[in-house]
Structure formats: structure tokens, C-alpha cells
Amino acid sequence: MHTGTVANREEWLKARLALLEKEKAFSRARDELSALRRQLPWVQVEDYEFATETGPRTLAELFDGRSQLVLQHYMFAPDWQEGCKSCSFWVDNLQGAIVHLQSRDVTYLVVSQAPLETLLRFKERMGWQMNWVSSAATNFSNDFHVWYTPEQIAAGDTFYNFTEGMHYGEHAPGFSVFAKDDAGAIYHTYSCYARGLDMLNGAYHVLDLVPKGRDEQDLPANMAWLKLHDEY
């Protein structure tokens, strides 16, 4: 491992303070960006129905008594026997945060195209606690641009990360945020995809602190090193 420049403590502190100024500027810029994100207009959406562990439930019911809902679009095709390892990396990172999110009026759950029984079997294997629902019977995943039919792909009729014609295959990762008002109307407030998901993965931010960083630059794909957590 390359050690970089070696310095005495005074030299290190001088360099660290210079970096701190940039970190503070980045934090202020991030706060401003977060405020702008919250100021996005809301779009009212229809009330989809999902298969859940407690039976069919509408999008409104998925809020589970809270006014804010965060859905992770998890790549899991109907004929897959295990889920996407990259999507799993994000789920792993969020497990411990669920109770804290709930205390702040936020419900977090995962949605996929695979049949519910397949999802629950894999959830048990992973030891996860979040609710996982299937959108297989609706157009939800298609409407939120994380699942495309073969016909759409062949026609170039795809839209991923807010870019016409873009896709990574039939399934793609993402997060979408919804809000419910006092009258029960549901609104889509935010979605992010691709590198926009980075902010939701704490493990990646820890790797950004260490000398090797994410250490992905020489890999055939960024997350080629990644495994399901029971396969390391």
C-alpha cells in the first residue's frame, strides 16, 4: 500500500486544517443542497396495491401510520433465486437505522418485482428486519423507472436517472420518497438513482476515510469486490 507523504505532527496538522476548511465548505454546500431537495414540488400519485406479509396493501397503507415513506427499489427479477448484491449492500447499511427513522415519522421499506414468497425467503436468509413488498401485480416499478419490459428496451423507450433512453437492463436500483397529507392524498417528492444512491450508504463513506479509499479503480466494475454478507 502506498503510504503517501510522510510528515511530522505539525506538518500533518497544517495539512489537516487546510482540508478541514474544504470539508466545512462541502458540509455547508450539502446543507444548501438538502434544503433545495426538500423544496422540490410534490406530484400527486395514484394508490398502487402491493403484495405484503400481511396481505394486499395499498401505497397509502405502506406508510404504516406515518406521513413520510422511503421506498428502496431493489433489483430482484421474478426468476431470480437471490437478490442483487449491490442492493443488498444498501439494505445492510439501513437495518440499524429503521427504528430511528420511524421515530422521525419516516417508514422505510423495500420493493421488488419478484413474487413475495421469493422475497421473504431471501429476507430470512439475510436476517433482515425491514418490510419487503412485491410490485409484481402493478406498474409501480415501471412508472418509477426501475423496471422496463423487453419491448421498452428494444424500442429505446426507457428513462433512467432522468435520462431518456438510458437503462442498465430490465431492472435498476433507486430510492423514492413519498408524503401523505392530512386528507390522505399521496405525493411523490423525490427519487434518486445511480451515483445519487451514494449518500445512503454509510459503509462507502467509511471507506472514503481510509488510505485505500473505495479501492475500486482497478476492478472491472465498481462493486466487483462485493458479496452478499453471508458469502464473505
Report on the architecture of this protein.
The chain is α+β, with helices and mostly antiparallel strands and 232 residues long. The chain has one domain: 3-Layer(aba) Sandwich (Glutaredoxin), CATH 3.40.30. The chain is built from 8 helices and 10 strands. It has helices spanning 9-38, 59-62, 85-94, 98-103, 116-126, 140-143, 150-155, 202-207, and strands at 43-44, 49-52, 55-58, 68-73, 106-112, 131-134, 159-160, 163-164, 174-180, 186-192. The strands form 3 sheets. A 6-stranded mixed beta sheet has the order 1-10-9-4-5-6. Strands 2-3 form a two-stranded antiparallel ribbon. A two-stranded antiparallel ribbon has the order 7-8. A hairpin with a 2-residue loop joins strand 2 and strand 3. The mean pLDDT is 96.
Helix content: 25-40%
- By CATH, the architecture is named 3-Layer(aba) Sandwich
N-to-C order of helices and strands: HEEEHEHHEHEHHEEEEH
Number of domains: 1
Structural class: alpha+beta
**CATH superfamily membership:** Glutaredoxin
Q: Give the biggest beta sheet.
A: 6 strands, mixed
The CATH topology turns out to be Glutaredoxin
- The helix count comes to 8
Enumerate the spans where pLDDT stays under 50 for 5 or more consecutive residues: none
